[in-house]
Amino acid sequence: MTTTTGAEQQIRSSHLIVTTAVTAASGLALVIVILLSLGDLPDRLATHFDLSGAADDTMSRALGLTMFLLVGLGLPALLLVVFARMQWWRGDEARRFAGFLGALPVGLSAVFIATVLANRGAASPDQVTLSPWVFAIALTAAVVAGLAVGLMVPRGVPRESSESVTPVALSPHERASWFGRVQAGPLVLLAFGAGIVALVIAAVTVGIWWLWLVVVGVALACAATTSFAVRVDSSGVTWRSALGLPRGHVPMSKITDAAVIDVSPADFGGFGIRLTPGVLGLVMRQGSALEVTHGKRRFVATVDDATTGAGLLLGYLQAGSRPDGTTRR
Q1: How far apart are the C-alpha atoms of 300 and 292, rounded to whole Å?
Q2: Contact partners, residue 204, CB within 8 Å, separation at least 6
Q3: Residues 262 and 238 both lie in one domain
Q4: Max alpha carbon distance in the chain (Å)?
Q5: Do 29 and 118 lie in a common domain?
Q6: Of the residues 70, 232, 253, 260, which has the maximum number of CB atoms within 10 A of its CB?
Q7: What are phi and psi of 325, to 5 degrees?
């Protein structure tokens, strides 16, 4: 359980105020440009451009502007709410994560603002052009905003020490198993679902067949990375997704320690299967997690009842048990 001190409250407030202000300012700029340009926009908007800057796809004005607002304002706001619930300001990566939350709305709003202004005054979409440099400028603005936010907010709240874990008493030839689950919460599923819905709307509207392949691919990726089963037994730690793949195994012979630690998705740069230097994480929420050390690497999973899983692993380590039933020397 985490406690909140005055210093921690100040860090939390700083992260929330800065990222919310950047998201609100970016969204407000997009809304103002749309309102000021509304009377000068054609019935159909050029919404996609080839490498030369010529328009190669269109949407109705109402649908196009709605999509700009949903993606440019709604998506960053939704992510801000989701990650606020996960307390991204905790951990060593808090400033980088705040930078990402600041960069995203700036970059998206810049692209959509440029697109609206390019359509302004055009008699038809085929008269609209958008310089490829616009995307480079938007990316630069996003990077600058992200760096500025990362520098403005304070360092994250230090992680709490590992919880005390009591090893399960096992004789050298005794066997026991423990099963846990890493499950995405409602807000994470809502964020993934919103992304899929946006892709479906785009596929239906644009009519490009290969966009449906993207929809199916994203849906399968979400299904494969939002729920995992974790098992601890005499062979070590085994994990697999709800679809069966991806999956992995840490042999007991390589495990050197087990613990329960406090983690945040901000420590890993997001949700799902996360790879950071020396760490493989199955991260779906903020809070306690099972940590398994094997050599110079770690496996971290935000399972329920991580204390029991860690205790069983420590019990096997103390008993010196190997998968073949022999004991360590």
Answers
A1: 6
A2: none
A3: yes
A4: 82
A5: yes
A6: 232
A7: 90, -5
Average pLDDT over residues 315-323: 70
Is 1 contained in some domain? no
Residues 83-104 pLDDT 10s: 887 778 877 778 888 999 999 9
Is the C-alpha dihedral spanning 202, 204, 207, 209 positive or negative?
Answer: positive
The beta-strand segments (E) located in 164-323 are: 178-183, 227-233, 236-241, 247-251, 255-263, 272-276, 279-283, 287-294, 297-301
Cα separation, 242 vs 221, in Å, equals 11
pLDDT digits (tens, 9 = 90+) for 95-142: 888 999 999 999 999 999 999 999 988 877 778 888 888 888 999 999
Q: What are the contacts of 206-214 at 24+ separation with CB within 8 A?
A: 206/48, 206/57, 206/59, 208/57
Query: Rounded CA gap, 172 and 316, in Å?
Result: 8
**Overall number of domains in the chain:** 3
The token duo for 84 is: 């606020």
CATH value at residue 291: 2.30.29
DSSP 206-233: H--THHHHHHHHHHHHHHHHSEEEEEEE
Amino acid at 230: V
Count of CB atoms situated within 10 Å of the CB of 252: 20
* Residue span of the structural domain in which 207 resides: 185-225
